[in-house]
Amino acid sequence: MNALFDFILYPLFYILPAYIANGAPVIFGGGKPLDFGKKIGKSYIFGPNKTIRGLAIGIMLGIATGTLESILPGFSYMLVVGVLESFGTHLGDLTGSFVKRRLGMESGSSMVLMDQYLFFVFALAFAYPAGNMPNVYGLLFLVILTGILHKLTNAGAYVLNLKKVPW
Ligand code: CTP
Ligand code: MG
Question: At a CB cut-off of 8 Å and minimum separation 6, what does 13 contact?
């Protein structure tokens, strides 16, 4: 029972604000691009798929998730973790787009590992100072889960017409 909590349930609970912050823009994003269509050389700074609304709603819903979690007795620290994960998630996501554009890759093109894991690594790195991270096995579970969820949610979003490409 304890192992189930440590390796699966707690890691899921801990990373949920980052997952929500990362997934929400697919549903609620769109509109004005964050870079206002500005370019560095021939390529957009971030590209049209990184929008102001996606960023704002992603961060807000991520923080809301952490806030709700922090109400549970003993988990008040999730308020801070949620804030850090939400900002970290989006900084990682924007960093990924920035790098892809500098490499001349179009918005929505796929870049293995970076697409799946940069938001995740940034979220964990940002939240680390607040302590209470899952243990090594829990983190390993999240690495595997994040790869699988990324594939599934993107394919699902494509089927539901929320995304133009299934990756
Ligand atoms: N999205 C958004 N605003 C953001 C981030 C994401 O509106 N700040 C929405 C966009 O509709 C985007 C979708 O979420 O197409 C999926 O995001 P992601 O896969 O991170 O972007 P890509 O479309 O793959 O673009 P890039 O090549 O820049 O990563
Ligand atoms: Mg993508």
Answer: 69, 75, 78
pLDDT tens digits along 7-53: 999 999 999 999 999 999 999 999 999 999 999 999 999 999 999 99
Ligand 1 atom nearest to CA at 93? 20
The H or E element spanning position 20 is: helix 10-28
**How confident is residue 1, by pLDDT bands cut at 50, 70 and 90?**
low
Alpha carbon of 132 to ligand 2 centroid (Å) = 30
Ligand 1 contact, 23 CB (< 6 A): no
Read off the pTM: 0.97
Residue 158 in contact with residue 23, Cβ under 8 Å? no
Specify whether the CB–CB gap between 107 and 49 falls below 8 A: yes
Spatial distance between the Cα atoms of 122 and 101, rounded to a whole number of angstroms = 19
Ligand with smallest separation from the Cα of 54: 1
**Which residue has its alpha carbon closest to ligand 1 atom 28?**
97
- For the stretch 156-164, contacts whose Cβ atoms lie closer than 8 Å and that sit 24 or more positions apart, written own/partner, are 157/26, 157/27, 162/26, 162/27, 163/26, 163/108, 164/108
